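Sample pair:
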Amino acid sequence: MDAAGEELADRVRALLGTDPEIEERRMFGSRAFLVDGSILVGARKGGTLLVRVSAEHGAALMTRPGVSPAVMGAKTMSPRWLDVEASAVADDSDLMFWLDVAREDGLAQA
């Protein structure tokens, strides 16, 4: 992973704090943050945030600037997996929005 991805992982780690439910792992060339074995978010190359959401809300969330369906290799993922560009999580309040969405929406559908 590049420096922007590492910086994002550091910011995610800091915002999630010392929550004992959160596990951090290297996965798919990124740094993934998991709860009960399910990916909550991932810090990816270029500072892109991978976010797991519910299928119902994925399409609506994709209308936000800097948000698109996640791409893994040659495969475009379902609307449950979103890539959020670095510019859309440039400040901690924006990043916290996405962490909250993943916790409240994505994990409820895990």
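The helical segments are 3-16, 55-61, 92-106.
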